[in-house]
Each structure stands twice: as C-alpha cells, then as structure tokens.
UniProtKB/TrEMBL annotation:
Name of protein: D-aminopeptidase
GO MF terms, alphabetically ordered: aminopeptidase activity
Stored PANTHER family: BLR5678 PROTEIN (PTHR36512:SF3), D-AMINOPEPTIDASE (PTHR36512)
Keyword Hydrolase: yes
Keywords: Aminopeptidase, Hydrolase, Protease
Annotated Gene3D superfamilies: L-amino peptidase D-ALA esterase/amidase (3.60.70.12)
Keyword Hydrolase attached: yes
Recorded coiled-coil stretches: none
Family assignment from sequence similarity: Belongs to the peptidase S58 family.
Group of enzyme by EC: hydrolase
Amino acid sequence: MSTLPHIGRLAAGPRNSITDVAGVTVGHCTLDDGPVQTGVTVIAPHGGNLFTHRLPAAAAVINGFGKSAGLVQLEELGLLETPIALSNTFAVGTLLNAQIAHTLRANPQCGRSLPTVNPLVLECNDGYLNDLQAMAVQPAHFDAALQAVSSEVAQGSVGAGRGMSSFGLKGGIGTASRVAVVGAAGQGYTVGALVLSNFGRLPELILAGDPLGARLAAAEPPDAAPEKGSIIILLATDAPLDARQLKRLAVRAGAGLARTGSAYGHGSGDIALAFSTAQQIEAEAECAQMALLADHLLDPLFHAAADSVEQAIVHALFAAETVYGRDGHVRVSLRERLAASN
C-alpha cells in the first residue's frame, strides 16, 4: 500500500487534524543534533488562561507502563488546567517545572493565595534513536514549542516525535479528525486526535485492514522481541461532555489503536486523554452548571474517536522521515521502506 488511506466512513474536518476542534493549537520544538534526536510538543486546548478557565477532561490508561505527571489529579477532579506537554521519558521532570513556571508567569498568586497547579506531562521512550542520558530537553524548549502553537500541525519526525519508533519503522507525531453527526437534529461535532506514536512490532502492522507488516517482515529474520513501545493519544472534541463521558470517549481510543496491530504489550505505555472545549469552567466559580449531550447519543462520537486515532497513527507513519540517531541507530520511514520493497 503506497497511498495514504482514509480510515472509516466519517468525513474528516478541513485540516484532518486535532486543530479542527476550534481553539486547539499545537506547537513543536525539535532537537536534531547527532545522538540527540528528541523534542517537545505542546497542545494548547484554548487560547486563554487554562489555570483560571479549565476544561473537563479524563484519561484512560490502556496499559500503564509510563512515567507521566498529572494524571492522578486529573482522574480525581476531571479538569485540565495547563497545556499538555509531550516529550521523552527523562524530560518529564524538566517539563513539569516548565509548566509550573508558565503558570506562575500568568498567575503570580498560584501556590500562595491561589491553589497550586496540576501540570500535565506525558511521555514515550525515544531511547533507541535519542541519547536519553544527555538530558537534552530544557525549559526553553517547552517555551519555544508553546510560542510556536498554530492550527497548522507538522507531523512525523518533529517535536516530541523526533526520536520515536513505530513497528520497527520511524514513528512520531500524527493527527486526524472526524465529524460525527449526532441526534435527530443532525448536529455535527468534531473529534480530533493527536498521537505520539512509539509502539508496535513490524510483523503485526495492519494498515487500513491490510496486514502490510507481515509482508514487509517476511524477508527479515524472525524477531521474537516483545513489545516495548508506547503511545500517547490525545482526543479533543467540541461536543458538550463532562469528565465521565470523556473517560468513555478516551477508552474508545483503544479501538483505533488495536486496529493497527497493537495488543498493548506488557512493556507498552498506552495512555489516552480526552478533553472538551465546549464549556470552560471558571476556577473560582461556586456553581458549575454544564449542558451535556445525552449518553445514548454518544455512539457517533465513539466511532469518530476510534477512526481518528487509527488515522492519526497512519498519518504519523506516512509523514515520518528516516532518522539517524545515537550509536549508528536508524529508523527507516515507511515510505522509504515501501519504495525499497517494490
């Protein structure tokens, strides 16, 4: 398969990106310097102050082999109060501090007269290509990614995706969207996905239902190595959902992930996080009233979540470029691998 397939029957948004959900922007800072092949990706759920105007959110831990920060409080309160930062495993502490510093600049009383902030940082291990021990990611790289946020999203070997691997090939950042038509009135809501794709074994790769990986792996020596990768999946929607409903939406990310050939292996950290931009919740409000979509109308959104996640993983594979990293390690892009097999 050499052409980019469209997953499912639902239409994509105009950009086929998470930024089709109005207000969502994404920025990257890429580090490409010999053995240092890593970076930072920041997702801004809206353009205002998230610490004071929060969004309902929830996470689903599909397999918990990960070192993320902020998920405990997110699970408890169901609120997103910082941008979402993605990077490599050893950068979590640095980005946690960078998130706090960013919040303090906009909210000087945070941790004094105001509550502390819950920074959200998610990671995958890019250590095959990237020298993790160099601890290359610095607070300035978070700031650069945040300053670069845009509705136009670069994909592939960029930002946090620079050193990531998928199915023994080059992985990285992928994004997609689907429009779900809900209810008798035919209301359209957008579900957008962004993935940090760093998982999978080549023999198990399924591309739009085609067992492509088995054919590509047939010419190689058998590889019995276990799955040790990870994926971070972010879902945004403009549908009016609360944290409980968003957790249900996040769970459906696993359907899209499984379709690509993942069985969520023992060493794989697979985390999905969903948020809604439909209604902001003021931090100091004494009563938060929300208009919510009825549960029995959620099925089209569940389909949109599964399809957009699968599409985002496909986009990451097709957009990625071959990267040479530490100690002579290399991950070849899917496009280059397909060209060589023809």
